[in-house]
User: Fold this.
Amino acid sequence: MMEGYNEKSHFDDEPAPGNFVRAFDAFPKAKPQYVTRTSGGGKWTVAILFVSAILFWSELARWWQGEEDHTFSVEKGVGHSMQINLDIVVRMACKDLHVNVQDAAGDRILAASRLQEDATLWSHWVDGKGVHKLGHDSQGRTDTGEGWHDEGFGEAHIHDIVALGRKKARWAKTRRLPRGVPADSCRIYGSLDLNRVQGDFHITARGHGYQEMFADHLDHNAFNFSHVVSELSFGPYYPSLVNPLDRTINVADAHFHKFQYFMSVVPTIYTVAGGSASTKSIFTNQYAVTEQSKEVGERMVPGLFFKYDIEPILLTVEERRDGILTFLIKVVNVLSGVLVAGHWGFTLSEWLREAIGRRRRSGRSEGVIGAKTGYDE
Amino acid sequence: MPPKSRFTRLDAFTKTVEDARIRTTSGGIVTIISVIVVLYLAWGEWSDYRRIVIHPELIVDKGRGERMEIHMNVTFPKLPCELLTLDVMDVSGEQQHGVLHGVKKVRLQPASQGGRVIDISALALHDAKDEATHLDPSYCGSCYSAPAPSTASKPGCCNTCDEVREAYAQASWAFGRGEGVEQCQREHYAEKLDEQRHEGCRIEGAIRVNKVIGNFHFAPGRSFSNGNMHVHDLKNYWDSPVRHSFEHEIHQLRFGPQLPADVGQKHAKSSPWTNHHLNPLDEVKQTTDDPNFNFMYFLKVVPTAYLPLSSSKTSGNDRTTDENVWLGSLGSGFDGSMETHQYSVTSHKRSLNGGDDAAEGHQERMHARGGIPGVFFSYDISPMKVINREERAKTFSGFLTGLCAVLGGTLTVAAAVDRGVYEGATRLKKLQSKNL
Assistant:
């Protein structure tokens, strides 16, 4: 008792107010002279520190990575137009091609006047890396080249998508034709505003499909609707976003070949939470596509037909991070859990050691029960 | 000390005897701080528990043979009610000309005179108001070689101007102002028409349609079907001393019941791109001076169910779909749950003369030619259905778990901190005493 009193007075530097606050101490500590330190406890302490460091680190990593939320809703406001971005090479001369859009609103959009047309060589595009045929997998479904976005373009990195989307978009230049080689293909590229309704974007041959006053009939042998789609997307042009039709090639076997792509356009927003809407989110459209191509008779109109329809449900993909407070609570919980569990583990191990030690000492004569009662005292 | 029970051995909360404990100031401070932290966090847990979130689910709409209601309130300031017709058509072949159960036509004064309401008439096709009651009971008016309408008050006769017009419409003849038609002159049809020329009209009310792709439109003149064609009698619209147009203002257009206003506010996330349960076309105003102008709205209707916390946990398919429900109450459940529809919309307008969109910077856009002036709404039903379910963010047991975690976690960490401070202080004291 005397010892304790001395300790107290020796310890206390602040006078009266300290006494008052001290009364609140809910964590009474044992006086130092009653505390023992054992090497076993030390080991446990080190283990606890180690485990909590690991857990803290993993918790931190998970927090930093954030999580992804997919929500959906119906778009607000009255829509008017939607942009289409395309970059298509067709194996025909530019002057023989008609590019038009016909939509449900009854409008015919003369797309050719808004798009760039460059004469080019077919071999420039087909040999390029990454270009592959729109094939079919074993179930007969169209393989839309989904595997191409392996290089960090999975949906897990929305902040990457958003960051890349902020870069200025520019169309690649057409490679210059070698001297003396006539162009055999036409590259059609650019962006164009469409009515935001169901429609049909098509590339057809001059003199076929549209009744025109002064378009002369084109020789059927000139038809070759083989094409390479380098880019086809809806909404603002983000070259970094990969769409199912990008980098696909489709070869026509006959002169009269009709390629049809049926696309369902899903408006999509990628957002990184915790910022203003303009800088931290991009509005774009994804689409699902099915392709159908066949040889048609001479009475039908050959060409490329991209039929699109817009889905009413808007998808929001949001990357979110918990608040710092929530994170701290989590960390505190984890750490305290480890502490308590460690303490228990230590107590248990001590008890075990004691019990085993006792049994060893008095094992021959008394047995377990005697040892236990002895421990209890 | 009480006698040792069998449980004493199991005590996991071994205590230091009172004499061997000390209390320190730092410990007191840590305690007070940790209590404050615990209270704050517990309050957070509580408010989290009380919070109601709206959890959207997306399912495929499995309803069959459902109907939906279109509620509208549209003002046409430059078109008299007499000239305005509403037609509803859907892909199932149900054509409802001039249909109007539950729709009112409100005659409005011209905007220059304040645009007040003159007269409200429920839009039944054949109201008895203009009935020529003073006529001889044996009177049988001529239908002017058109076949008498089946709805005539006296079979085979056209006793009123309205019946003559109906007969003409069924025969696909243009009617005009009714010159030379005895019934109409008696009822002063032409005078009445001219009198109303300056008026505006407001259509308000609801119609119930099949839940299939369809369209409804406001167009001038009486409509009739001529074979597969749907035709409007435009004579009175064009041959007019006053310039009419389809300038319009949509006060409200919704499919199904309106959700209470506070639902939108409850929705935690408000994105600039979406708003929940507000109708995008509300308060949309389009102006034109051209009588030959055509407005089109392409709507995609998404069935939406709203299940508040109080409603049963069933999937929400047991809503009232009875045919006999009052107009306007279809879809509202007794427990506050609702079957309604949201929509997204694209608008489009063009002149009947065709031409391009050069005025809006789209020279490449060639409009179709022809058609009739009017306001057209074509709607498409989405196969996906959104269920917005109100939920508590946490269950009660989740709340308790959270509370325990907060309490235990904070106290344990505080104890560790306190211990550290104490040990540190002791060491410091020892060092100081050595130095002294």
